[in-house]
Amino acid sequence: MLTKRIASRFYPSLGVSSLSASTLKSGDILKKERIFSSSDVIEYSKLSHDSNPLHFDLKYAQNAGFEDRLVPGMLVASLFPRIIASHFPGAVYVSQKLQFRSPVYIGEVIIGEVQATNIRAIKNQYLAQFKTKCFKQGDHVVIHGEATAILPTLAKEQGQSMG
């Protein structure tokens, strides 16, 4: 516990902001809010080699029928493993199924949400299935899908996520 307390003080991005924990149950929802910036898109592009002009050229995006430059869908979807790992350090992300429903523009407030739907013990770990969704403008779904992760424990750490 002392290590976690020290880590949260010096590395707040790890998502360890409280030492209290509860147990994950089917139906539980974990959330994270994020605003993606131009620099996020540039950094993502450098790592992924995604140079689609929809992400960088306003005129190109507008000519394609969009209001503004788009945040890459996979960058938005990266909220899901982040939410899970912030509550269950050491979780292993096994699979993700995604459907992209609406564009996400740079500067929009996005809420990522994972909801536990099925949990079963396997050896001394847990296989957890989640419904995954990202919203903008309150309840407008931009991405939805399903994810599976192997969790080392069902004790949720109170990361920097909402909910």
Query: How are the strands ordered across the major sheet?
Result: 2-4-5-6-3
- Distance linking N and C termini: 23 Å
Shape: elongated
Parts with pLDDT < 50 across at least 5 consecutive residues: 1-20
* Distinct helical segment count: 5
- Overall mean pLDDT stands at 87
Helix content: 10-25%
Q: CATH class of the domain at 26-36 and 77-157, anyone?
A: Alpha Beta
Instruction: Give me the CATH superfamily of the domain at 26-36 and 77-157.
Output: Hotdog Thioesterase
Using DSSP, what is the number of strands? 7
CATH architecture of the domain at 26-36 and 77-157: Roll
Main sheet makeup: 5 strands, antiparallel
Radius of gyration, CA atoms, in whole angstroms:
17 Å
Provide the structure class: alpha+beta
List SSEs in N-to-C order. Answer: HEEHHHHEEEEE
Q: How large is the share of residues in beta strands?
A: 35-45%
CATH topology of the domain at 26-36 and 77-157: Thiol Ester Dehydrase, Chain A
Summary keywords:
25% helix, UPF0336/Enoyl-CoA_hydratase, HotDog_dom_sf, 37% strand, Hydroxyacyl-thioester dehydratase type-like protein, MaoC-like_dom, 163 residues, 5 helices, Thiol Ester Dehydrase, Chain A, (3R)-hydroxyacyl-[acyl-carrier-protein] dehydratase activity, disordered N terminus
